[in-house]
Amino acid sequence: MKSLLEICADVRAGKVSARSRVEEYLAAIAAREPEIHAFNEIHADAARARGDEIDAAVKAGRDPGTLAGAVIAIKDNIVMREGRTTCSSKMLANYRSPFDATVIEKLHAAGAIFIGKTNLDEFAMGSSTENSAFGVTKNPHDTTRVAGGSSGGSAAAVAAGFCDAALGSDTGGSIRQPAALCGCVGFKPTYGRISRYGLVAFGSSLDQIGPFARTVADATLVYDAMVGRDKSDCTTADVAHEPLAAKVGKPLTKLTIGIPREYKSSANAPAVADAYERAIAAARALGAEIVDIDLPLTDIGISTYYVIAPAEASSNLARFDGIRYGHRAKIAADEDLEMLYSKSRAEGFGPEVQRRIMLGTYVLSSGYYDAYYKRALQVRRLIKEEFDRAFEKCDVILGPTSPIPAFEIGGMKDALSMYMCDVYTVNTNIAGIPGISFNGGFADEGAKKLPIGLQLQAKAFDEETMLRAAAMLEAVLA
Question: How far apart are CA 430 and CA 424, in angstroms?
């Protein structure tokens, strides 16, 4: 199969029609989307028109851009003028954005075609896409199992062959974990690499937009088109970036990989533990130096995350009150404004979102702020320092993405068990460093084979080393 770089080059050269690529993907969507439910909306007419526009530009001798003809799906918490942006919530079921997110503008300028908006856990709060108000997204490898979350729709769309790539958002693993469960690549860049302007905020100090794709190289091409300082997002970093798509396939001649003792956990499913050991052996065979490291705060990350993220969510979601934004409940003549707020939010938000808003409000309340939120921020600093020390000994850190393969829909009965699915991913966001998940093998589950994801992490703004290392491992483990 050709890489996305080669496909886009063929479109730019007029060898392949962008419109024909849209039609192929729409046919694939028509065949399997009813059983998978990757999308909340499919923008068929807009995608066809965009394909025609790109073909006309090529015919006229104009260069449509590095992503000419690339068909991309967009997580439904990233705003676009086309269609609705619902965050898979009743609260925003009919919301239409008056503007495009910065990443949408950049991808459009690079020649991308947007095929539709993908399903997610409501307001990106979840690890299975079972929390969507519009139904569960199913895993393309086994439709009795979850696709992961919160960007399950984007991961499933790529894995099912509905698009070349997709965008997701990652607050505590919401790109990498569904990529692992669906067997594709999911890449969370360093915090500040990509503008969050137009991303409906969950945890503002943790959120980062990133790509899903079939390969590390394809994800890198999409990433290159989105990177950069944005005057509309003051948290974007003014750090130089050179395009990496042409570099990612070049092996590293010297690479030191850190193996955390804490990642070899008894909580890992046997198939995950085996895949991890195979990856370590493969890295050693490639000439990488393998060193043991310690990340003792790994298990503390979940509790730290579930103080910081809900605290920020409770603030960010306060705007959805039925007056300024969102679903507005009907109230009786003798009911007051407070009842309108209460009913609107109770009807508009699902159980998981309500749980996190209440948790966040609690940890920020008078008398509890120092005991919970302030202390969590102090632990966050310790986690960042722990990674800094680790990267003095190694270039990248290798581990599982998820301790288990995809579980059955409805099979995770309590919230804490679900939260623990992100034990290896949340600290990446807490520390603000980049992480990528790629397929490291499969677990046999009867007649079905379930993907197992492996994760690499690198120091802040060293995406190049991480992506090149991931491509090396992908080549021998695929």
Answer: 11
Burial of 144 (0-12, 13-18, 19+ CB in 10 A): middle
Determine the pLDDT at residue 262: 97
Active site residue 374: no
- Give the pLDDT confidence score for residue 107 in this predicted structure: 98
Structure tokens at 376: 């969590």
> Which residue do the tokens 């006309």 mark?
56
* Cα 14 to Cα 59: distance, rounded to the nearest angstrom: 7
**Spatial CA neighbour of 305 closest among 386, 143, 420:** 420
pLDDT at 414: 86
* Secondary structure letter of residue 122 according to DSSP: G
- What is the distance between the alpha carbons of residues 209 and 227, in angstroms, rounded to a whole number? 10
Given this model, what pLDDT does residue 469 score? 98
List CB contacts of 442: < 8 A, sequence separation 6 or more: 183, 271, 449, 450, 451, 452
Higher pLDDT, 236 or 478: 236
Q: How many residues belong to the chain?
A: 478
Structure tokens at 322: 């039925």
Catalytic, out of 97, 150, 151, 437: 150
CATH class of domain segment(s) 4-226: alpha beta
- Give the integer Cα–Cα distance in Å for 441 and 438: 9
Closest CA to 78 of 93, 94, 95, 100: 100
CA–CA–CA angle 285, 288, 291 (5° rounding): 115
Q: Given a cut of 80, is residue 446 above it in pLDDT?
A: no
Question: What is the pLDDT, as a whole number, of residue 258?
Answer: 98
Amino acid at residue number 291: V
Residue 75 known to be catalytic? yes
Q: What is the dihedral of CA 5, 7, 8, 13, to 10 degrees?
A: 120
- Cα(128)–Cα(151) distance, rounded to whole angstroms? 8
Task: Classify 461 as helix, strand or coil.
Answer: coil
From the list 88, 97, 151, 174, the catalytic residue is 174
Q: Which of 339, 442, 456, 459 is nearest to 390 (CA)?
A: 459
Of these residues, 75, 106, 138, 343, which one is catalytic? 75
150 is catalytic: yes
Residue-wise pLDDT for 454-466, tens only, equals 999 999 999 999 9
